[in-house]
Automatic annotation (TrEMBL):
SUPFAM superfamilies: VC0467-like. InterPro entries: AlgH-like (IPR003774). One of its GO terms (cellular component) is cytosol. Residues 102-112 have a biased composition (Gly residues). This is UPF0301 protein AOB60_19020. It holds the Pfam family DUF179. Residues 113-122 have a biased composition (Low complexity). Belongs to the UPF0301 (AlgH) family. Residues 85-129 are annotated as: Disordered. Coiled coil: none annotated.
C-alpha cells in the first residue's frame, strides 16, 4: 500500500462541487488520518440540543454557543469532546501513533473520549493534563468520563460533538483526487468559533491564495 501522509490536525473544507448533503459547506477537523482510514468532526453543524441536556457536568466548560454539534453522520449516539489547551503545543505535535486510541473515541455508541493513562505526578503522557489527549498542537480529545474539574483550570475552549465523520482506507484520498475537499491548516480558534455557521467562509477567506475567492461563492451554485 502507498504510504499515506498524515493530515491529522488539518481542516477539510468542502468544495462547492461536493454534492453529499451531509457535508455541504462542511469544515471538518481531522482527528486521525493514516493508512487505516480517517476520522474527523464537522465544526460548523450546531444542533438545538444544549450540552447541559446530555452532559450537564461539562456544560459550564463548553464555549458559546453552548450546544452539541453534529460531528458527522457516524455513531450519532456517541459523544466526542474536543478541547484547546493553551500552551499544549507544539511539543508532541502531530498525529497520534497507530493504535493510540484516537479513532476509538465516539465509535462505541456511548459517551466516548480519549482515554488517558494516569501517572504518578498527576499529568498524562508527555505532561499533558489528565483527561486530555493531544491530537495536534494545542488541540486534543477530552475524556468525557473524567471529572470536569481535572481540566477546568487549563481548558481554553471545549466543544461537544455527537457523531463523527469517518472514511475507510484510501476513501478520503479518492475524494481529494475527485476535488471534493480543500485541505488547509487549522487554527485553535476554529474549534470554538462563536459563529460556526460562518466558519466555511471565514476559513476560506483567510487563505492567501485563490481559495480566498471561493469564500464569495453563492450558496446556490446556479447563481454563480
Amino acid at each position: 500500500m502507498t504510504e499515506v501522509s498524515s493530515l491529522t490536525g488539518r481542516l477539510l473544507v468542502a468544495t462547492p462541487a461536493l454534492a453529499d448533503p451531509n457535508f455541504d459547506r462542511a469544515v471538518v477537523l481531522l482527528l486521525d488520518h493514516d493508512e487505516e482510514g480517517s476520522l474527523g468532526v464537522i465544526l460548523n453543524r450546531p444542533t438545538p440540543v444544549g450540552v447541559a441536556d446530555i452532559l450537564a457536568p461539562w456544560a459550564e466548560l463548553a464555549g458559546e454557543p453552548g450546544v452539541v454539534f453534529q460531528g458527522g453522520p457516524v455513531s450519532l449516539d456517541s459523544a466526542l469532546g474536543v478541547a484547546v489547551v493553551p500552551g499544549g503545543g507544539p511539543s508532541g505535535e502531530g498525529a497520534p501513533s497507530p493504535g493510540s486510541g484516537t479513532r476509538t473515541g465516539g465509535a462505541d455508541g456511548g459517551t466516548a473520549g480519549a482515554p488517558v493513562t494516569d501517572t504518578a505526578d498527576g499529568a498524562g503522557p508527555g505532561d499533558e493534563p489528565l483527561g486530555w489527549r493531544r491530537v495536534h498542537g494545542a488541540i486534543g480529545l477530552v475524556d468525557l468520563e473524567a471529572p470536569p474539574e481535572l481540566l477546568a483550570a487549563v481548558l481554553g475552549s471545549l466543544r461537544i460533538f455527537a457523531g463523527y465523520a469517518g472514511w475507510g482506507p484510501g476513501q478520503l484520498e479518492d475524494e481529494l483526487v475527485e476535488g471534493a475537499w480543500y485541505v488547509v491548516e487549522s487554527e485553535p480558534g476554529d474549534v470554538s468559533s462563536p459563529d460556526p455557521e460562518q466558519l466555511w467562509r471565514a476559513v476560506l477567506r483567510r487563505q492567501r491564495n485563490e481559495l480566498a475567492m471561493v469564500a464569495t461563492y453563492p450558496d446556490d451554485p446556479s447563481l454563480n
